[in-house]
Each structure stands twice: as C-alpha cells, then as structure tokens.
UniProtKB/TrEMBL annotation:
Name of the protein in its database record: histidine kinase
Span of domain Signal transduction histidine kinase HWE region: 184-266
Listed InterPro entries: GAF (IPR003018), GAF-like_dom_sf (IPR029016), HATPase_C_sf (IPR036890), Sig_transdc_His_kinase_HWE (IPR011102)
UniProt keyword annotation of Kinase present: yes
PANTHER family per record: GAF DOMAIN-CONTAINING PROTEIN, SLR1143 PROTEIN
Domain GAF: 23-165
Organism per entry: Microvirga ossetica
EC number(s) stated in the UniProt entry for this protein: 2.7.13.3
Catalytic activity: ATP + protein L-histidine = ADP + protein N-phospho-L-histidine
Amino acid sequence: MQSVSTEDDRLATLRSYRVLDTPPEPAFDDLVQLAARACQTPIALISLIDEGRQWFKAEVGLGVRETPLDRSICLSAMLEPEMTIVPDLAEDPRFAHNPLVTEEPHLRFYAGAVLRTPDGVPLGALCVFDRVARDLTEEQASTLTMLAGQVMSQLELRRAIAERDDVLEANRRFEQRQSLLVRELHHRVKNTLATVQALVGATGRSSGSFDEFYRSFSNRIVSLAKTHNLLTEDYWQTAPLRGIALTELKPFAEGRQPRFMLIGPPVELSADLAVPVGMALHELTANAICYGALSVPGGHVQVRWSVTQIEEVRKLHLEWREFGGPIVSEPQHQGFGTTLLQRILPMQCKAEVEVQYDPQGLRFRMDAPLVEQRLVPAY
C-alpha cells in the first residue's frame, strides 16, 4: 500500500476524481441502498473526506449531503488499515461527545469500510449507522467491504470516462483549430500573392530603371517577409506593433545614440492590419533614409502610438515624426510610398490618414480600427 506524503497530496488525489459536489448518480445510490439492506441498518453513506467537511456522494436515511469535519466519524475510520466497527458510539471516548451521537439523529452503531485508491490513498469510507448498539455478522462485514470495492470501481470508471471526454474534447478543439488554421493560411497566401502583384506593378511604374526597380522591389518584399515572420509566430493571426516597427528601424539602433524612439503600449495587430502598417512603416523608413531625418547624422525619428475606444470600437492612433533632417518640401510627383500612405491605407484598413510636409520634418498620422476577433484560437 502506498501512503501519501501530506494531506495536500491526499486532497489532490480526491479532487482528481472530480466527484465532489456532483449531483446524485444511480450507480452510487444503488450501492448505499445495498449496504443498508445487507447490514440491516437505517442509514448508509458514501463519505468523502474533504478539507473542512465530509461530503456524501450518496446517502440513505440521514437526509443531508455533508457535515463539518469535526463531526466526522468516517475521518477516524479512513485512517485505519481495516474496516472500523464501533458497536456503541456512546461508549467510545473518540465519539461519545460527537453531536451526531448526543443529539439528533442519536447515532449509536457504526461500521465503515475504507475507500482506498489503487495506489492506497484513502478518500473516505462506505459506512452504515444504526440508532441502537449492535454488531455486524462476518457475512455483513464481508459484504460491506466488497461494496466499498464497488464504490471505488465506480469512482475509477467515472474518472476514466471524464478523462476520455477531456481527450475527445481536446482532439475536437485541435481538429477545429487546424481546420481554421488551414483556412487562414489559404487566406494569407492569397492576400500575400495579391500584395506582391500590386508591389510589382506599383514599383515598376515608379522606377526609372531596372536597377532601381529591382532594389525597391526587393526591399519591399524583404519588409513584407519580416512582417509575415512575426505573424507566423502567432499562426498568421497577430503581430506586435513594436516588433513591426523594429524590423524597419533596427539598423538605426546601433551606436551610442539611437536614431529613433518607439513610444506606446503593447498592441497586437491583426494580420490584415499588420501587413499594410508594416508596408507603411517601410515606406516611411525608406523615405527618411533617402530624403528625410535618417539621411543625415543628427536626424532622428519618433514613432508614437496609442489605443482609444469610441463606443464599442477600439482604434489605433499612430504618428510618425522626423526631427533634425533636411528641410522638407512636398514631392512633385506621387510615388508608390505616397500612394500607399494616402490611398491604400484608407482603402484596406478603413484608416484616416494625414501626411504633413512640415519643413522641420515629415509628419504622418493614422487612425485605424483594430480587428479584435481571432480566427484561430490561441493555445
């Protein structure tokens, strides 16, 4: 027989059966009826010793489902290696002053067979009571022991069924998640191909030579891939805004004085918002490197964001500001970057955008609704 090292271990074992505070079940009710009939007693209980109480999975003749632990007779029986029989509770010093003996229901006789797990952990007892002093015959004691074994068999069966149901439910959720994941992957691949196709056309129209086209297109594909790398960490669902910004500006973090500041709370962007925001930050960074604050040693960039809630809609507020760069003037023609910021973002993300060509530094502002619903549940 294996003993438990602490009472906490015993209670953990008891709770692993997930039986406490469950409704009555015929299989257990039948066993207490059989125990009462076999032992010819008016009261029979399946008593489980919990923390601070004894709880009855099934009972006949007592009329309550639990009592405080300080009234428990089964607690003493549970600690014995064999069946406990007390012919007269009023004559036993351990129980003579128990309210169940001195007051209603004035119990006198007790017999209890320990409910012990296959590993030897005691959980409680199958017990019978009478209101008169008496004893059990050898056959009655044997029957009570066998019925206690049947109680444990029912508890083991009940736990096995519950564990099986848990596995089936986990498998169902896994299959559902995998199905949703495949759907999201198909959606993401389709959107990515459409984005690449748009990049090819837009970059071609805004490039003056093949070398310029190749360089711009390659850089945009690399930026897109970085955003997708962040998305794959969460099964193509969300990507952190700070991580998206860092993928573009990380080269400027080196040196004694960083060339950028990222200011804002943790925000996860859904895939359909993360991709265009990543592309926008790439275009802003590329423009700053060629013409703006990052084109000169003393310039720096500030990216600030916040989340506000208007009624039931949460919105992302994002600002890009450049400082210490060359004097800014409005471009003479619209390239892909300008088109993305001013036309594609409002169309794809329902965003409100504003681009200000402040002589002191470019300023970009975007307000876009956040998509809260996940297609694939998180682990």
